[in-house]
Design goal:
Layout lengths: L2 H12 L3 H133 L5 H18 L1
Length: about 170
């Protein structure tokens, strides 16, 4: 029993011819290689390129998201700095206003002091003039009274001596 007889028995039992089966397998292999060359490779290339496009889109989206986050943090920092700068500007303006207020008050006090000094000087001058006027009035009255009492005219130098003596005596009595 040879190999051929066994193949015949197998073929009768299964109902498939051995050589037909080998040709079918060879046809299947050729069809597979043909499809692999013409269909599977272009299809795989197309799927790979599509996958690459999707991966690129995801990476672009991720980089855009990171860029947006960076811009957001940058803007938040700028807003924070702007807030700090506005506070600094307000503090500076407040300090300037306080300095200006102090300067205005100082100038007003100086002006008031000068005005007060001038008024005091004027008062002293008016007082001196009033005292001199009173001296003149008193001296003329004293001359008239003395002339009436003595019955003679008193010289001006005698008159001044009498008046000064009278004023000194009045100042000592008070």
């Amino acid at each position: 029993m040879g190999l051929l007889s066994m193949l015949d028995k197998f073929e009768n039992f299964v109902g498939v011819n051995f050589w037909t089966m080998i040709f079918a397998w060879i046809n299947l292999l050729i069809l597979y290689l043909f499809l692999k060359k013409l269909l599977f490779k272009p299809l795989k290339n197309m799927i790979d390129s599509r996958q690459k496009e999707i991966d690129d889109m995801y990476s672009e989206a991720e980089s855009s998201r990171k860029g947006a986050e960076a811009l957001k943090s940058e803007y938040e920092e700028k807003i924070s700095r702007a807030g700090e700068e506005s506070e600094q500007i307000l503090r500076t303006a407040l300090r300037r206003a306080q300095l200006k207020e102090e300067e205005i008050l100082r100038e007003a006090n100086e002006k008031a002091s000068r005005t007060l000094e001038r008024a005091e000087e004027q008062i002293a001058q008016e007082k001196k003039r009033a005292v001199n006027d009173i001296k003149n009035e008193v001296s003329s009255l004293a001359i008239d009274i003395a002339a009436a009492v003595i019955g003679r005219d008193v010289s001006e130098s005698e008159h001044e001596e009498l008046i000064n003596e009278f004023i000194e005596n009045i100042g000592e009595e008070k």
